[in-house]
Design a protein that fits this description.
Helix content is about 35%, strand content about 20%. By secondary structure, the chain is an alpha/beta fold.
């Protein structure tokens, strides 16, 4: 027995991440903790001692995907393996998860991932029948304040996420996030600066700033407009980062100071994700969202005037309770007037526990889908027209893949996994940033050649 323990290989973990970039960031933290504890990572669940699914429970479809992934791993699980549900769905629907996933060993919540190593140790010593829970009450466990050294981010990786806060204090009537994430809690500046420096040191070229609401940074300690000064400090602290990309800006918190900082710091690319959710003031009121459309339009005009190459991305919900045909038409008119570069759309999903769940005027699924299709049909030619403006221009791109004589890359206009691509007609080094000449445009993607490549005239 002694010799067997002495020769036993280091334990191995498999980690599957579902949901949004905030989950990706948390999964990187989980990986780091396990790697520091001498676990090895594997992409093959059959070879793992510990199986972890970082779940998403924001919408019903995400919940079903998470349950399905856990059930699939549970069906393949061998006797020595542990199966853990982590993240949002585990926090929000813990008892439901244990009922639907037979063979689950433990659940660890959204604010507890820094305890993943001792939690696994508890599971090893645990005698069933019931799975162990580590689901802290909302607000009980403070946001992680450790400055992550990101050892699991490989040298030369092109992009990385930087989560500047967790939780959300916005009162949106359709959203469940505050119920399981708690109110907004900002990470200390010194930890964010140190983390940015480490990312730069391993060759990261693009840092994507994320949070439930990036523009709420510092509000939990009384700093009303803390994001602009944080951006200035981040850029100064890590001069090797070529692109800083800003996601998830709450429209009620955007400021002219933010525009000024973006204009004076060229490393902060002129890209902003501003999830508006709707464009009609009455619908926005029922959503408990900022609804002063005129003020919003003035801010957008200032953003685009100050930053002529600015990209504006947004998301909309269609079929919200009480959304009349006139309100939906108002949303379409708003989109036609603003001409967003990027638009994502969702049909309303009634989530239990939210004020919108049982609002009067629920919309049928057929009408929701019909409105979704009308919205996307309106946006597609707008996106094409915005892309066509780029034909003949030079842009820097980050190369994400290459093969069969072409490369797949992203320009500053494209956030990873949610926007389009630039298809470059040559194989370029993956992870490199290269200048290209845009030669063609589609609704969502661009076509290019390397900027130093001769143009053949037929």
């Amino acid at each position: 027995m002694t010799r067997k323990n002495r020769n036993r290989p280091e334990p191995t973990f498999y980690l599957l991440t579902l949901g949004c970039p905030k989950n990706t960031f948390d999964s990187e933290g989980i990986s780091e903790m396990l790697l520091q504890a001498n676990y090895n990572s594997t992409v093959d669940p059959r070879r793992a001692d510990v199986l972890i699914v970082n779940t998403c429970g924001f919408l019903q479809a995400a919940k079903e995907e998470s349950i399905g992934a856990l059930q699939e791993l549970a069906a393949l699980k061998r006797k020595h393996q542990l199966l853990i549900a982590a993240g949002c769905m585990a926090q929000r629907f813990g008892s439901e998860v244990t009922q639907q996933v037979k063979g689950l060993d433990g659940l660890i919540g959204t604010r507890a991932w820094t305890d993943i190593v001792p939690f696994i140790q508890k599971l090893r010593a645990h005698k069933k029948p019931a799975p162990l829970y580590h689901l802290p009450e909302v607000g009980e466990t403070p946001i992680e304040t450790v400055a992550l050294d990101r050892r699991q981010i490989e040298v030369g990786r092109a992009s990385a996420y930087l989560k500047i806060s967790d939780g959300c204090s916005a009162p949106c009537a359709f959203c469940t996030i505050p119920s399981f994430k708690g109110l907004n809690r900002s990470r200390p500046r010194e930890h964010l600066l140190a983390e940015a420096q480490r990312l730069a040191a391993v060759g990261v070229q693009e840092i994507i700033i994320i949070a439930q609401d990036t523009t709420a940074y510092g509000r939990d300690w009384g700093e009303i407009d803390g994001l602009p000064s944080l951006l200035e400090q981040l850029v100064d602290s890590a001069p090797g980062i070529k692109w800083w990309r800003l996601m998830y800006a709450y429209p009620g918190h955007t400021s002219h100071k933010l525009i000024e900082v973006m204009a004076t710091r060229p490393q902060i690319i002129p890209y902003l994700d501003l999830p508006l959710q709707h464009g009609h003031p009455e619908t926005l009121k029922r959503m408990r969202r900022p609804h002063n459309i005129e003020k919003l339009l003035r801010w957008i005009e200032a953003y685009r005037t100050t930053l002529p190459d600015a990209v504006l991305r947004t998301t909309f919900i269609v079929g919200y309770p009480g959304e009349s045909e006139a309100e939906f038409t108002g949303l379409l008119d708003f989109m036609a007037a603003v001409k967003f570069d990027r638009v994502g759309a969702f049909t309303f999903s009634p989530e239990p526990g939210t004020p919108a769940f049982d609002l009067p005027g629920q919309i049928s699924e057929e009408i929701k889908q019909e409105r979704y299709e009308r919205l996307m049909a309106l946006q597609q030619p707008i996106s094409l027209e915005r892309n066509q403006r780029l034909v003949g221009r030079r842009l820097d791109v980050l190369v994400e893949g290459a093969g069969d004589g072409v490369s797949i890359a992203r320009s500053y206009r494209d956030a990873p996994e949610i926007d389009g691509y630039v298809v470059v007609e040559k194989e370029l080094p993956v992870g490199a940033m290269r200048p290209v000449l845009i030669t063609g445009a589609m609704a969502y993607d661009l076509v290019a050649i390397p900027a130093d490549q001769p143009i053949l005239v037929m």
